[in-house]
Amino acid sequence: MTLSRIATGVPGLDTILRGGLPANRLYLLEGQPGSGKTTLSLQYLLEGASQGESCLYITLSETADELNGVAESHGWSLDRLHLFELASAEAVLGDGRQQSILHPWEMELDGTVRLIQAEVDRVKPTRVVFDSLSELRLLAQDPLRYRRQVLALKQFFAPRNITVFLVDVLAGEGMERDAHLRSLCHGVISLERLTLDFGAARRRMQVQKLRGSDFIAGYHDFAICTGGLEIYPRLVASEHHTPFVGSPVPSGVAELDRLLGGGPLRGTSALLTGPAGSGKTNVALQYVWTACERGEHCCIFQFDERTGTLLTRAAALGLDLRPHIESGMLNLRQMDPAEISPGEFAWTVRKAVEEEQCRVLVIDSLNGYMSSMPQEKQLMLQMHELLSFLNQNGVMTLLVNPQHGLVGTMSTGNLNVSYMADTVILFRFFEANGRIRKAISVLKNRSGPHEDTIRELRVDEQGIRLSAPLEEFRGVLTGTPKFVGNESPLLDGARVGE
């Protein structure tokens, strides 16, 4: 039997749910205050109203003015929704309720439930949001009576072909959830708001269960923006594969292409690692500019350097990127690691590949990306999945990774992604003839043969140049080379004082 599904109004959530929510079921939407429950609920109802459905918002906690305030902040109008406000049971039942032999809370609860049922029968909605169960729990006072009323509500809604959201407020991050309530509902969606030591609060969600239906499990980052929730489904690389030809990607510099056996292949990743200022970003820009000249779409995600500085530096090398940006061939994006979540970044990369047909992608740098999520284990898992996705879509990815230190022995710190990269290009400083020089070498290339030589790298107004192999030096990789021959391999043979 094929389940009939309905859209939630949040495209990312529909993707997680494999097409939407199974219709005519009861769902629990739970989360802490400020996690986005009301916004998601309104989006869900407004989506139904846009399809011509009758939609009802039952509020026991927020007033109609407060709901309209939320809607206005997103540019929405709630005119198409039915709002049923029960801010307090006193206003419903009047002052004479205590004359009964029943306890006041019994009258409040029973009267409130009866009014809700009467309103549902009057409006005849296909979508209902009940906000919130916390107020119903307070009215019931007794846990057994509360659960009986929730079960009664489920039985009331079941034959009426209504898809219901029951909203529940969790008091704290470690609050124990109601297992009985979860078992009653067809599905459970949890929203979380996390406060970090620095930067904006992070929000994430997960589908705890969806009875009889497949969904993408695990945590998914999301943000509340003007216009509602934007949910970024967790990337599953195995679900995305595009046929492609794994041809070499040339750089436009003959010596560099020879060093890499023709260039990195499409569908592979190259790690450019070395100290700051050793030429990593310049080499990446050379690949991007050449690809744009060939008519291939490229994307640079810039975490560290300002885009203005990057464009100025590229122009000084004879690589004018501005025309390619204006034509849409190059998408240069300034990323803020304090604001963006890893899930949002992965979703942005996915859109660049699938919608913009990006063929060469640069992440500069991995240290900036690491700042967006301090937990190293999760970072590595997400980066591994992201690289798998890019590889399966034929994208040549350049990862810029600054090492700790400038000269001598250096380390990658606590971020080691060299095992994930198909190609590793090492940049180093060395000193010869009284000058600081740069060296470049290829440590590994899974996609084919490569030179095992070490060459001098020069980056100046003439562009990127490579010398002949530095056969007359020893110890270049350690940063403390020893000169054992003549200086003819160097790009300028000038001696000190000449």
Tell me what you see in this structure.
The chain is elongated, with a radius of gyration of 30 Å. The longest helix has 20 residues, at 104-123. The protein has helices spanning 11-16, 37-50, 64-73, 89-93, 104-123, 133-140, 143-157, 179-184, 254-259, 280-293, 307-316, 322-327, 342-354, 366-371, 376-392; strands at 5-6, 21-22, 26-31, 55-59, 82-85, 127-131, 163-169, 187-194, 202-210, 220-225, 228-232, 269-274, 297-302, 330-334, 358-364, 396-402, 423-432, 435-445, 454-460, 463-469, 473-474, 482-483. It folds into two domains: 5-234, Rossmann fold (3-Layer(aba) Sandwich), CATH 3.40.50; 239-483, Rossmann fold. The protein has a nine-stranded mixed β-sheet, with helices on both faces. The chain has a nine-stranded mixed β-sheet with strand order 14-13-15-16-12-17-18-19-20, sandwiched between helices. It has a two-stranded antiparallel sheet with strand order 1-2. It has 498 residues and is α/β, with parallel strands linked by helices. Helix content is 31%, strand content 26%. A hairpin with a 2-residue loop joins strand 10 (220-225) and strand 11 (228-232). Mean pLDDT is 85; it is low at 88-105 and 494-498. The termini are far apart.
